Amino acid sequence: MEIWINPACSKCRGALTLLDAEGADYTVRRYLEDVPSPDEIRAVLGRLGLEPWDITRTQEAAAKELGLKDWPRDAAHRDRWVAALAEHPKLIQRPIITAEDGSAVVARSEEAVRDALSR
Question: Residue 114, Cα to own-chain centre: how many angstroms?
């Protein structure tokens, strides 16, 4: 199991606390420092069953500078969204846990973390 975190994020710290309390075996990826490639982002999106715009933090300054709210949300523009996430990792929703069964969850709640642990 791997968890993508921003240490400054309270949701990430809460997820780590719960993983530790449950004795989970996991690897931490500080994705702002160890930036995922476009291929890694695509792979995680596949595991999540989501589109890139579904995990984009649209209220971040970079999102506003890029004008993301006006970008089309369709298959033809998917790679443009993925590229933006790779170039501006702060736009990636957090934390993301990749589970042992090959799936992943955006673990912003205790329930989502427990869901990842049960997989």
Answer: 16
The pTM is what? 0.94
Q: Which residues are catalytic?
A: 9
Question: Which of 22, 85, 96 shows the shortest CA–CA distance to 52?
Answer: 85
Rg (CA), the chain: 14
* Residue with tokens 């890139």, as numbered in its chain: 52
In this structure, which amino acid lies at residue 3? I
* Tens-level pLDDT at each residue, the chain (119 residues): 999 999 999 999 999 999 999 999 999 999 999 999 999 999 999 999 999 999 999 999 999 999 999 999 999 999 999 999 999 999 999 999 998 899 999 999 999 999 999 98
Give the whole-angstrom CA distance, residue 101 versus residue 117: 10
